[in-house]
Specification:
It is a single chain. By secondary structure, this protein is of the alpha/beta class. It contains seven helices and eight strands, in the order E-H-E-H-E-H-E-H-E-H-E-H-E-H-E. Bound molecules: S-adenosylmethionine. S-adenosylmethionine (SAM) binds next to strand 3, helix 4 and helix 7.
């Protein structure tokens, strides 16, 4: 007898990028209203899926433009039966301006592509233009958590947030409400860089009240 293909009863987890690059509401993304957190550049989704599993009371959106990573993350999310996670395949720089004002509790940006050549720096995510968007979209008291291994990117990104009145640097990375325990590796790239003994820099900022 031939095997029937296994039917996975899971909601469609991937959203249409066309819908999310024009102004949208979070009700268009998540069927159940809950606080929203967004991870930019999820890779295979290790962090996002752990966070979503640990905190079912929060909606998590994963933004990633590499389809092979996204497919991996989606199938893991389906296998774990997570209903509070959605994915979109889009350039993060294009989805940010479409997000509603004061609507996201937390952004996570871990090991973003460093674009080391000077002429490519404008492609980096953590720059002035995206800082303006992050300040607009975060709720008062919302958080931005960042990690990078790249010394030049690290030097360039800190003043972008330290010098803006909308953001206040936290004394340490993570803090109350952070989904992982201290010392737990954040992502696949963090594990890889730890093995390679590369520097790993981390910081968190809070969105000051308007
Ligand atoms: C170095 S990897 C880090 C992945 C993951 N955050 C981790 O730490 O394991 C950077 C990821 O960001 C994605 N990425 C880079 N630029 C992006 C952009 N503008 N929009 C969406 N995803 C992007 C890449 O495809 C890649 O998966």
């Amino acid at each position: 007898m031939r095997h029937q293909p296994l039917k996975i009863e899971a909601p469609e987890l991937r959203l249409d990028p066309e819908r999310l690059t024009k102004p949208f509401s979070w009700a268009d993304v998540f069927p159940v209203e809950r606080p929203v957190e967004v991870e930019i550049g999820i890779g295979k989704g290790r962090f996002l899926l752990d966070a979503a599993e640990k905190r079912p009371e929060i909606n998590h959106l994963g933004v990633e433009w590499a389809n092979k990573y996204l497919r991996f993350a989606e199938s893991r999310a389906q296998r774990r039966g997570l209903d509070n996670v959605r994915f979109v395949r889009v350039d993060a720089r294009e989805i940010m301006p479409a997000m509603p004002d004061r609507s996201v509790d937390t952004f996570y940006v871990f090991y973003p592509d460093p674009w080391p050549k000077k002429r490519h720096h404008k492609r980096r995510f953590l720059r002035e233009d995206m800082a303006t968007e992050l300040a607009r979209v975060l709720v008062d008291g919302g958080k931005l958590h960042v990690a990078t291994d790249h010394a030049d990117y690290w030097e360039a990104l800190q003043p972008v947030f330290d010098e803006r009145p909308e953001f206040e640097r936290q004394p340490s990375f993570g803090g109350p409400g952070f989904p992982l325990a201290e010392g737990e590796p954040l992502t696949h790239f963090e594990i890889k860089y730890a093995v390679e003994e590369r520097d790993r820099h981390r910081a968190s900022w809070i969105r000051r009240a308007r």
